[in-house]
Description:
Blueprint: E1 9-11, E2 18-19, H1 23-34, E3 38-47, E4 52-55, H2 61-67, E5 79-81, H3 82-87, H4 99-107, E6 113-125, H5 141-162
Parallel strand pairs: 3-6
Antiparallel strand pairs: 1-5, 2-6, 3-4, 3-5
Helix pairs in contact: 4-5
Amino acid sequence: MIDGTDFDAYMLQDADDWSTDDRLALQLAEAERTGAELVGAQELRVDEAGHVAAVCYPLDAGRLLATKPDCHVLHPTSLVSRDLVRRIGGYASALRFGADLEFQTRAHHAARIVNVASFCYFRRRRAGSLWTSPETGEHSRQRHRQNARFIARATRNAERVAAARRPTWRRSTAVDPCRSTM
């Protein structure tokens, strides 16, 4: 999609989630104020019973990524610049899940990454999603193995940067064994 269009930035959102009507304005203002090229938001998680939980992400996600590689931006909440995506080689499209962590561990070496303080994203948490599934969910063996590879590469990139060398921008091209072939 990004290669086929010429917008300056893209606002991401999962199809079954929703946002407040001021999310884009808040993120654009934060991007302008901070110079960030990846701007996330705070999350209100809604489960199937209708319970709501506030989930907070660090305001300076990039600083935390430098010391603790993890998803410090809930990627569907994000506004991402086209230039950043192109500069670091795009998203790892061969992955069925986890491309957000893979992208963020590369992106923090090339751009400022922040979250707005506002809760402007509503995320549905439902059974059977990639995040809750026993095969692909947050506690699954497959996700832990894949994340370990991303974190190992992030650690190597941090060592390269500390030695005044460029990080490796190459995105993960390994086909995820859980990826559907349909």
